[in-house]
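Quick bug: Helix-turn-helix transcriptional regulator output formatted oddly.
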Amino acid sequence: MARNGELGEFLKSRRARLRPEDAGVPSYGTRRRVPGLRREELAQLAGVSVAYYIRLEQGTADGVSAEVLDAVARALRLNGDERAHLHRLAHPPRRTPGGGPPRLRAPLQHLLDSITHAPAYVVGHHTNVVAWNRLTAAVFVDLASVPADERTWSHQIHLNDDYKARLGANWPTVAARNAAYLRFRSAQDPDDPGLRAVIDCLRERSPEFHRMWSAHHVADLTHGEARIDHPEVGRLVLRYETLHLPGDPDLSRLMLYAAEPGSPSEAALRTLAETSTCRSSADLADPRTAAPG
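Here's what came back:
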C-alpha cells in the first residue's frame, strides 16, 4: 500500500495535465467535466480494467507488477524521473536509517578548499549542506551565519529573503525545481525523518512551497544553470554539474559550478575570491566530528 495516498494524488495530477487530443482520445465536441483524461480513458490506454486503475488511484498498489506500472506510465506520458517516481510510490524502498549526522571525510573538505575560483559544496540527502568552500558562501549564502538546522538549500530558497533577492526573476524557476527535487527524494527515502522534517517545515511556513508541492512535479537535479544577482559584483551566470559519492552513503552529491571562460562571470568570481571574507565549512569544523580519509 502506498503511504498517505501519494500514489493516487500523483496519478490524478498527471492524468489531469494530459489533454485528450494529445493522447489521441476523441472528445466528439462534448464538454468535459474534469480536466485531462477520464479514468476510463486512461485505463483503456494503459490496457488495464477501469476497476484496477481506480484501485491504483485510491492508493492500492499491492501486487501491481512493473509491467502494469510501465503501461500506466506510457499512457500518462511520464518522463524518466516521473516513471521512476511512480515505481517507488507503488513499491516504496526500505532503507536502513543512518546512525546520526552525516560524516565528512577530510579529503572531501580538502578538495573543496582547493577549488578557489568557483563555488563547490557537498550536500546530504535532504538538501542539507554538509561542507562548502568560501566561494559558495560568497556567491550564494553565508552558510556560517545560518543556524545548523536551517542549513539546507530548501530553507534558503524558500525562506531566506536575502537569497530570494539574489535569485531575482529566476526565483520561481529555482523554487519549483527544488520542490520537484524534494518530491523525487521523498519517494527514494520515504522513511527519512530529516527529509520529512524539511518538507513539513516548508509546507507550514511557505505558501508558495505548499502550492508547488501540491503540483506533484518530480525531477532529479543533474546539471543546469544558476543566475545570481550579486550585490557586489552584479549578474553571475554559472553552469553546475552534480557528482554522486557512492563511497559515502550518508552524503548525496558534490555540486560544482563554473563560469564560461573569459566571461564577465569568471572575472566576477575572481574578484570575489580575492576580496570575500566569507568562511568555508573548514573554518567551522570540529575535528572531533571529521571522519578520517
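Actually, after a second look the formatting is fine. The domain at 106-283 is CATH 3.30.450.180 (Beta-Lactamase). Closing.
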